[in-house]
Write a structure and sequence with these properties.
The chain has 211 residues and is of the alpha/beta class. It is 39% helix and 20% strand. A five-stranded parallel β-sheet has the order 2-5-1-6-7, covered by helices on one side. It has a two-stranded antiparallel sheet with strand order 3-4. The protein is globular, with a radius of gyration of 17 Å.
Amino acid sequence: MKSSRKKPLLIGICGGTGSGKTSIALILKGKLGEYNPIIIHQDSYYLDEKDLPQKIKETSNYDHPAAFDWKLFIEHLRDLINFKPIEQPIYNFHTNSRLQETNHIEPSNLIIVEGILVFQEKKLRDLFDIKIFVDCDSDERFIRRLKRDVLERGRSLESIINQYLSTVKPMHLQFVEPSKRYADIIIPEGAHNLVAIETIVSRIHGILKDL
């Protein structure tokens, strides 16, 4: 899809696990539907571990930058910026591996990218026109992650708690929280902060209204 802009508007949404990144991305998509926005989830770009033993998978650190395929992630975003479609990986969280199928995504004037570490790599940060950090209480984030991993990913309570204490919390403190300094906008209380969300929507409308 061609556009009168030289490039699409690229929005990065960062924040800890369970902070409400995906919820805010979906709210923005709904409120800005006239621009046919697309959402790119960083979770789709986990490295494929299909050939690793299950015991190794269970101890992998999925909250460390090394867990992601940065090369493909950035390559795909650059393709979308140049109005080229992509074949996005589909990641299976039950097997910790990529499916053979891919998700075909057409380019758009508005691209929303969300993930815990989307501000980690400078090459990626430099692509964003607007950088948003979603701030949320750590207890609330843990409860949301607990519900998600039990209901959507079939994980046991014990495994979720062990993973949170051994990798999720330390990685949040080491990588996610410090990335807040790169944000243009910080949203406290996540998707509950309707004032902040409406302000962002208004700003995006102002940029894209002449398309």
